[in-house]
Specification:
Length: 266
């Protein structure tokens, strides 16, 4: 009876163990399929920087197989200056023991690609870090678009500031909220002296105030969407005056509330 009891206990134990091993294998295969079918680069390295695992996206981008990279470090994969930066990022994750996001530039197939890498420590059953896991997303195209937009914005701003005509915008109280460099040069002020501080009326002659006070309320109320060809005299910082012609339009939000004016000065 004792022998039979031991036999059935052992058979049950090995059956449970076999089921657990099969379940573990299935879970491992499922995890591998998930990480292999993402467009992100995924990798795991031990605390010494040796690769333990990579996904298929990593294999494709860097032309190396899972079995070939195990035990290698970034110094075996990339130039020293690139590997140094990657290693410093890994060490920062280990030192701080938390998830950190980095922007990294890594060569691939003869060109440098830009990545946003999210790296975090993996912990053992004693909650001690034993590896660093990273997920990197290629943002090269996005960076190129951002650079083009930045260049385009610079060109637009340059055109705005150095246009042959003056430009300013005022709020409902008449405070100048924007002004271009051309008009600043005419007036002899710095941007910090006017934008958000000066009332446009302070920059006009006394006679011109009468014209402004008759026309501005019409723009505020929406009675007139624009005023054109208004001739006034503006006053420079040194007190001298010069004549200009003003074209102004009123800008409203979707509810019909006045936002600001846009005025071109000639």
């Amino acid at each position: 009876i004792s022998i039979l009891a031991v036999f059935f206990i052992l058979r049950y134990y090995f059956k449970v163990r076999r089921n657990a091993e099969e379940e573990l294998k299935e879970n491992k295969e499922l995890l591998q399929r998930i990480i292999d079918n993402t467009t992100s680069v995924i990798f795991i390295k031990d605390l010494e920087g040796r690769y333990l695992l990579i996904n298929e996206q990593y294999e494709k981008l860097f032309s190396i197989k899972q079995e070939e990279i195990k035990g290698k470090t970034d110094y075996d994969m990339f130039p020293k200056e690139v590997a140094d930066e990657i290693r410093l990022a890994d060490l920062e994750v280990i030192r701080n023991n938390k998830l950190i996001e980095f922007e990294e530039n890594v060569p691939s197939n003869g060109e440098v690609r830009n990545y946003i890498s999210v790296k975090f420590p993996l912990h053992d059953i004693n909650n001690k870090p034993y590896a660093v896991c990273g997920m990197a997303t290629d943002i090269t195209e996005r960076k190129e678009v951002e650079n083009k937009l930045r260049l385009r914005n610079h060109e637009i701003l340059d055109l705005f500031n150095n246009a042959p005509c003056g430009y300013h915008s005022v709020d409902k109280n008449g405070i100048v909220i924007e002004i271009n460099q051309t008009e600043l040069n005419w007036l002899g002020y710095g941007r910090e002296e006017i934008a958000g501080k000066k009332d446009i009326r302070e920059l006009m002659s006394f006679e011109s105030l009468l014209i402004f006070n008759s026309q501005f309320p019409k723009l505020l109320d929406g009675d007139e969407g624009a005023v054109r060809g208004i001739q006034i005299t503006m006053r420079r910082k040194d007190g001298t005056e010069f004549p200009v012609e003003v074209n102004a339009i009123a800008v409203f939000d979707s509810d019909g509330n006045f936002l600001h004016t846009r005025s071109s000065i000639f």
